[in-house]
Design brief:
It is found in: Cytoplasm; Secreted. The protein contains 12 helices and 41 strands. It has 4 domains: 36-190, Immunoglobulins (Immunoglobulin-like, Sandwich); 215-507, Coagulation Factor XIII, Chain A, domain 2, CATH 3.90.260; 525-633, Immunoglobulin-like (Sandwich); 640-732, Immunoglobulins (Immunoglobulin-like). By secondary structure, it is mostly beta strands.
């Protein structure tokens, strides 16, 4: 069998002196494969019809047939064969006459890309043998009847992921006869979390069902004190999504030969998910104006985004962290890499990764937004992908952080990961990739620093517990929240936590210790800040409570600053300023209420309806400063979804979406979206305006295709109100 199959066209390519063949990073391009490859001069009487000839190849590729059932690929809405690597699949070959093993010789060829080469894994010849070796390419005959044979074919546990072309080659005395190019026999090979020899092997069946096969998920947002959740449709099995995901690897220019390695795939994907520096999938926008695009909050899932990118090849506008993470999760699960979406509450975006976020105060003790460059995101979403890490010492495999949101560059591009969660927990941040950045996101300290007139900095207060307070993901097999903070960090104040920090510092994470600064806090007075439940469009109260534990009387000059913020913690506008002097009696508590009126915040409200309050108080007798900050989320109304009539596969039914406008104003430019993976593709409808207190009703007719438990997800978007969601689980009956 020839090592590479050269055609005349290939020899004419302009080559540089460094490589023998051009870079090979398109799964789409093909080379010409000769149907008759002669060994020399062909005698005049030669007739290929005299030899064994392939009449038909049957791939058992229907969802109910053996291959897709055994390989857990029956959910893919794709007519071709899809199998997972390192596991046997069956095909049947019909010849023009019975096959005679003594004299007939044939083999299979799997090819990928424009320049197939055996040593690169892009040209795979498979001879038929008597036994299949686990984890290696091979084929054996399991059944013979009349003119047909049935083969069991095994793929390698390290083979390339993607779409292969299949040929059957027959040996004759004068040359090799091949089947004609037939795209119906193309075979997709994916990662196999069910196979012990695969780098992505996951040993728990419930976890595989969740992290590979579940096509809907939950995104947790809001903030630590007020965790909110919404559904997201991953839709990794929907039509054309698999091809779109393979296209992402072409777009990222990942060599075909590297596509069997989940570490490489995650690294390049984290760059191509965002549009910075490579025209990737999603353009981020955090400034609340989304002209010529879709507001990040309006998306209900990944499918629309991936398919739009696949057809237009241009970045899709717009995304924020949960959109990048949702699309990344679809990509990983689609290729067979177990993946989950993570939310880190109070996530540090520390511009110089020194584990210290500086909030600068002015003379009055208010935060100076000009000087303050670091920010604390209310929450930040990233992904974890499950794989072994043969490139690291033993013990750092398992969950790896990957992040497609563009925050900082890594090796010159906006990307992040894979970074081992184990390495982050133990402070071993020397191990690739980007562990120091992730370590800082979950472990920073907040320093409140006052600038003196002469330019010296005085540390007034340090908050060591706020950053990375809570790290969560969706629970396995349910919609509840699973707290995974302990996977990332030891308990605050434990010996292990200190040891992990010292390790991280030893490996180059910059850390200024509190001891370096002459900082003595006021320990005998506590200040607490609480907000009552706040509903969008209504007034609400906030409360400041002091506990004076000393025998002294104190007076506290208090500043409250209320800001409308992006969920990234960046301020848009201060909407509330309030200062007062509080008398603190010895050994007692004093409490103060402040009313926040809806008229103060409604005009400038941003889509996540998020406020950030800074409270600073100076104890006049000692000159010490107390500081506390807190994010407050407004309750946003939800959409109601209900179904009408019975839900049977193949029968038309209808779903009704309702919404009542709770604001004291008319909503303009209202758009509704509705989707359900396996039920209906996204439908959009525009409504001009919805007056205050009035209810909007939208009925959608659709025909569910498959029985089973499915989820409908809807969103509403308008100029004044965003982040409005609704969802409904529906059971589709068998006809």
């Amino acid at each position: 069998i020839s090592e590479t199959m050269s055609t005349n066209e290939e020899n004419k390519l302009p080559l540089n002196g460094r490589r023998a063949i051009p870079p090979n990073y398109s799964n789409d391009e093909e080379n010409e494969v000769p149907e008759m490859e002669a060994f020399g001069l062909i005698p005049r009487g030669f007739n290929p019809r005299d030899y064994l000839r392939v009449v038909d190849i049957y791939m058992f590729k229907e969802p109910h047939e053996i291959n897709k059932q055994e390989h857990h690929t029956d959910k893919y809405y794709n007519p071709r064969l899809i199998v997972r690597r390192g596991q046997a699949f069956q095909i049947q070959i019909d010849f023009n006459r019975p096959y005679k093993p003594e004299t007939d010789q044939f083999w299979l060829e799997f090819l990928m890309g424009r320049y197939p080469q055996q040593n690169k894994g892009t040209y795979v010849p498979i001879l038929v043998g008597n036994v299949l070796k686990p984890g290696q390419w091979g084929a054996k005959i399991i059944h013979r009847e009349n003119n047909s044979i049935r083969l069991s074919v095994m793929s390698s546990t390290t083979c390339i992921i993607g779409r292969f072309r299949l040929y059957v080659a027959v040996l004759t005395p004068f040359g090799i006869l091949r089947t004609r190019r037939n795209s119906a026999t193309d075979t997709y090979i994916l990662f196999n979390p069910w196979c012990q020899l695969d780098a992505v092997y996951l040993d728990d069946e419930k976890e595989r069902e969740e992290y590979v096969l579940n096509d809907v998920g939950i995104v947790f947002h809001g903030n630590v004190e007020d965790v909110k959740s919404r559904s997201w449709s991953y839709g990794q099995f929907e039509e054309n999504v698999l091809d779109a995901c393979l296209f992402l690897m072409d777009k990222a220019e990942l060599e075909l030969s590297g596509r069997g390695n989940p570490i490489k795939i995650c690294r390049v994907a984290s760059a191509v998910i965002n549009s910075r520096d490579d025209n990737g999938v999603i353009a981020g926008s955090w400034n609340n104006s989304y002209d010529y695009g879709v507001a990040p909050s309006a998306w209900t899932g990944s499918v629309d985004i991936l398919l739009e990118y696949y057809s237009s090849k241009q970045p899709v506008r717009y995304g924020q962290c949960w959109v990048f993470a949702g699309v990344f999760n679809t990509f990983l699960r689609c290729l067979g890499i177990p993946a989950r979406l993570i939310t880190n509450y109070s996530s540090a975006h520390d511009n110089n990764a020194n584990l210290r976020l500086d909030f600068f105060l002015d003379d009055e003790g208010k935060v100076d937004t000009r000087l303050t460059k670091d920010s604390v995101w209310n929450y930040h979403c990233w992904n974890e992908a499950w794989m072994t890490r043969p490139d690291l010492p033993v013990g750092f495999g398992g969950w790896q952080v990957v992040d497609g949101t563009p925050q900082e560059t890594s090796d010159g591009m906006y990307r992040c990961g894979p970074a081992s969660v184990q390495a982050i927990k133990h402070g071993h941040v020397c191990f690739q990739f980007d562990a120091p950045f992730v370590y800082a996101e979950v472990n920073g300290d907040i320093f409140y620093t006052r600038m003196e007139k002469n330019g010296t900095q005085v540390v007034e207060n340090v908050d060591t517990t706020r950053i990375g307070q809570l790290i969560v993901t969706k629970e396995v097999g349910g919609d509840g929240m699973m707290d995974i903070t302990e996977e990332y960090k030891f308990r605050e104040g434990s010996d292990e936590e200190r040891l992990a920090l010292e390790t991280a510092v030893m490996y180059g994470v910059k850390k200024q210790s509190i001891q370096d600064t002459t900082y003595q806090p006021q320990t005998d007075v506590d200040m607490d800040f609480q907000a009552q439940k706040a509903v969008l469009g209504n007034d609400f109260k906030v409360n400041i409570t002091y506990r004076n534990k000393s025998r002294n009387s104190y007076t506290a000059t208090t500043y409250l600053s209320g800001n409308i913020v992006f969920y990234t913690g960046v301020t848009k506008r201060e909407f509330k300023k309030h200062s007062f002097s509080a008398k603190l009696q010895p050994s007692s508590s004093s409490s103060f209420d402040i009313v926040i009126k809806s008229s103060e915040y409604m005009s400038d409200l941003l889509e996540q309806a998020s406020f950030h309050f800074f409270v600073t108080a100076r104890i006049n007798e000692t000159g010490k400063i107390l500081a506390v900050q807190k994010a407050v989320m407004l309750e946003i109304p939800t959409l109601r979804i209900k179904t009408k009539g019975e839900l049977v596969a193949g029968k038309e039914t209808s779903v009704i979406v309702e919404f009542t406008n709770p604001l004291k104003q008319t909503l303009e430019n209202v758009t509704l979206r509705l989707e359900g993976p396996g039920l209906l593709r996204t439908i959009k409808k525009q409504f001009g305006r919805v007056p205050m207190n009035s209810t909007l009703t939208w009925e959608v007719k659709f025909t569910p295709m498959r029985p089973g438990l499915r989820r409908l997800i809807a969103s509403l978007n308008s100029d004044a109100l965003r982040h409005v969601y609704g969802e409904l689980n529906v059971q589709i009956q068998k006809p």
